[in-house]
Amino acid sequence: MNLLAIETSTDLGSIALWCDGVVLRRFCPVGIAHSETLLPLIRATLCEAELGFADLHGVAFAAGPGSFTGLRVACGVAQGLAFAHQLPVIPVGTLDAMALASGGEQVLVVLDARMGEVYYGRFSRAVPLGEVVVCQPSALPLPDSAGWLACGNGLAAYPLLRARLAGCVHRWQPELMPAADAVACLAAPRLARAEGIDAAAAAPLYIRNKVALTVAERLATGGKA
User: Could you report the per-residue pLDDT of 148-180, keeping only the tens digit for each?
Assistant: First the structure.
């Protein structure tokens, strides 16, 4: 089974090919819009693996949450390839994939959502323990138990979180970012179970409907107009 996975929910974009359990991951060039680099990178990686689009059995993408533009790009490319080659689509939660990549059993994922907020989710062996939320670091819900692993760049962006989570976290991975190989690893068993959806039904998971602060909001927090 051959699966293409796309992850562009942050500035660090990547793709991965799952080929019967062997994963080949490649990162998007830095400093260039994902919309410009994704298709050339996909073609080059398929060529490297000696595969063509006709050899794929499905397309997965990180559905969110994350950058509004990045999520639209990943979803649009996945839909386009799926339509063109009659492939099923497998949307995967961005934070779900991060929880898997962390290698932890009880995982708190904290991804910087910008605008003074974070995307936050709790997972047990990469299975969600509730809905992903967006909140300010000071309002992040605390687990009622110890022994958690915390990961994601929200930990580095908001040092307050270290103090808030210190009583329940025993391992920290602030450097962990979303990547396509974890998306592929979550999507592959779903594709094998024929759980892919039609391309027309694929959609990003935004969590919130606001992409930027207003001028008044930036000024109120000491920013520039």
Answer: 999 999 999 999 999 999 999 999 999 999 999
Q: What percent of the chain has pLDDT over 70?
A: 92
Cβ–Cβ under 8 Å, residues 113 and 65: yes
In this structure, whether the domain defined by 2-94+178-201 belongs to CATH 3.90.1210.10 is answered with: no
Separation of alpha carbons 173 and 28, rounded Å: 22
16 close to 24: Cβ distance less than 8 angstroms: yes
C-alpha R_g of the chain: 18
Read off φ and ψ for residue 191, nearest 5 degrees: -65, -40
Q: Place domain 95-173 in its CATH homologous superfamily.
A: ATPase, nucleotide binding domain (3.30.420.40)
Find tokens 């690893």 and name the residue.
Answer: 185
Instruction: Note whether 2-94+178-201 and 95-173 share their fold.
Output: yes
User: Model confidence over 51-104: pLDDT tens digits?
Assistant: 999 999 999 999 999 999 999 999 999 999 999 999 999 999 999 999 999 999
